[in-house]
Amino acid sequence: MKTTQIPFQKTGFFSKMMHHYLEKNENIKPFYNNFPDIFGFHNQIEEKQKSYNLQTRLTLVDALQKQYASFKISGNTSENIELLKQQNTYTISTGHQLNLFTGPLYFLYKIISTINLCEELAEKFSDQNFVPMYWMASEDHDFDEINYFNFGGKKVTWNRKDGGAVGRFSTDGLEDVFEVFSNHLGNSKNAKYLKNLFSEGYLKHNNLSDATRFIANELFKEYGLVIIDGDDTKLKQLFNPFVKEELQNNTSFKEVSETILELERNYKIQVNPREINLFYLGNEFRERIVFEDDVYKVNNTDIIFSRAEILAEVDKNPTAFSPNVIMRPLYQEVILPNLCYIGGGGEMAYWFELKTYFEKVKIPFPILLLRNSVQVVSEKQSKKLEKLNISFEEMFLNQHDLLSKKVRENSEIKIEFTEKIQFLINQFSELKEIAEKTDVSFLNAVNAQERKQVKGLENLEKRLWKAEKRRQKDLVNRITALQNELLPNQSLEERQRNFSEYYLEYGSSFLKAMKGALISLQLEFTIIEL
Q1: Are 211 and 232 in contact (CB under 8 A)?
Q2: What gap in Å lies between CA 525 and CA 469, rounded to an integer?
Q3: Is the confidence at residue 523, as pLDDT, over 90?
Q4: Chain segment 70-104, per-residue pLDDT in tens
Q5: Where are the beta strands (DSSP E) in 333-386?
Q6: Which of 61, 79, 395, 491 is the most buried (most CB within 10 A)?
Q7: CA within 13 Å, CB half, 2
Q8: CA gap 404, 398 in Å, rounded
Q9: Cα 333–chain centre separation
């Protein structure tokens, strides 16, 4: 196995906002607290130490023990849950939807980033304990985003009626999905493991939260991963004061809206707040709470509360109040002794909107760390790249640009149209000087002729290289096929493929290779040659 790092900026798949964050650009600095380096973690530990109390710790541990009660828990995970009682123990967290069979590859990279960071910090801060935490997005209701995974270029899909929090969904009907998936796998040792993991997870657990916990636990139990479900009465009770604040004062809307005014000067806004950033959660629905005509209404239902009634409902039925994308990060930071959230670029973009909101409600804003991002390259693919003289950085070029570059490099035609066009522009520059001494109509005629001739040369250049691409058809086809293998749908493979494709080929050594190769605080894109 060989590992190579390249800057995230060189892949073309990360936003200006992420580039600026990694570069500590002045424009993004107002929107985060501590940067993900050792100095930043030292400061973060001090901040969290002051704000997170023992009673919250004990409630968290009690809730986790109840959530794991019916699961076979590893010694490492059990030990980590116990460690959370101690006031020198902190979490490093990541979160993800309950995608079918873990969904895209980057789910694994998120968790590996989290586990590895805990190990890296334990070496630097020997007096503290660090627990890797996976937050299951069990209250999400976007079923269409999680009801499938890709395997071998095909979608394996779970079709069922949508409605309510996905974590509460019954696993009925997944027998059919298992049968379809099994038919793709064959009967190798690794195939049998995958079949068993799927069937034990989905066919022997009653709901999607329990199934997801089982699968994530099986994959990462040796590393002490702790999995938390926020759809929990005791944990929601800890969050009740912030829910009431939101219902009465629209705090998140006011603070985030002000932040967005500043943030949008330089960056694309990921999500906009609503006046109330809470859903009301029932068994079959999850609908927005709105304040209209001096009463609180649950969208698309007949449920109505007065102010006094809804505040009483928060105390009586805390699990009914489900934070949306704006408030969920706060919920997490209220109930966890968390130092750092690890996520992808899209997640971090909405976290950057939240710092002043956290400050307003007096909760420490966590360190934000861009998760490890990986491109796996097989030995065969690596040899092809070398033979085609394609570097790892070139591999990520837009396909049209990559083909144009390689066709030119491989061509016997050595003509620089850029020089010809610049020569033409220089010639017209002299004519313009003369034209300026005459009338406007002559100057306009010169400008028009310049545009026409420059355009003519540009068209000739396009036609030349189009013809050259046809002549080098074999090279073009080989490059196209290889890049399509590496970047399915012209996207990072980690966003397209499921881990099962690699597990089928490499078995458990694939997960071990990923964990051994990745360094959380390196802040670079990783290419792994297997």
Answers
A1: no
A2: 31
A3: yes
A4: 999 999 999 999 999 999 999 999 999 999 999 99
A5: 338-343, 367-370, 374-377
A6: 395
A7: 7
A8: 10
A9: 18
Sole residue written with tokens 């049998």: 192
Task: Look up the pTM and report it.
Answer: 0.91
At 227, which helix (H) or strand (E)? Answer: strand 226-229
- Token duo for residue 392: 């790892």
Q: pLDDT band for position 511 (50/70/90)?
A: very high
- The answer to whether 523 touches 6, Cβ cutoff 8 Å, is no
Strand-strand pairing, 129-136 and 367-370: unpaired
- Rounded to an integer, what distance in angstroms lies between the CA atom of residue 521 and that of residue 299? 43
Which secondary structure element, helix H or strand E, spans residue 154, and what is its range? strand 154-157
Specify the residue for token string 């002729």: 449
Tokens of 414: 């050595």
Q: Please give the residue that has the higher pLDDT: either 214 or 442.
A: 214
Residue 90, exposed/middle/buried by CB under 10 A (0-12, 13-18, 19+)?
Answer: buried
At a CB cut-off of 8 Å and minimum separation 6, what does 179 contact? none
DSSP label at residue 148: E
